[in-house]
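Weekly modeling sync, notes
Attendees: AB, CL, MP (scribe)

Item 1: holo prediction request
CL wants a bound-state model with zinc ion before deciding which constructs to order. AB pointed out that an apo prediction alone won't tell us much about the pocket. Agreed to run with the ligand included and paste results into these notes for async review.

Input as submitted:
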Amino acid sequence: MITKPKSARYNRAVSRLRQIVNSGEEILRASWIKMTHPCGKSGCRCAKGKKYWHINWYIRQSRNGKQRMKSVPLEYVKVLKVKTEAYKEVRELLAVIGDEYWDMFNK
Ligand SMILES: [Zn+2]
């Protein structure tokens, strides 16, 4: 007879996963890339050196073996980071749940 894992670790992961899904939180599978560049205008602070260069943020996702990249306007970085963090957490929770099942079969 196969039942659910009984560990506290499993229960914690399932209830957190349920909480995230039920909250309607948006989940974005992507990783972040930060690039810096000088704009080339004389008189801009970026001309003073690399540490003053302008920052561009991108999200990257691999799909069907291909990498896709999208530039993210600065004003969207914060709100999208919440969604990519949610993805990371959900993935970790699924790994915990999957491991707990695996361990149960191997007892
Ligand atoms: Zn500049």
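Recorded for review: The first helix runs from residue 8 to 22.
Action items: CL to compare against the apo run; MP to circulate these notes.
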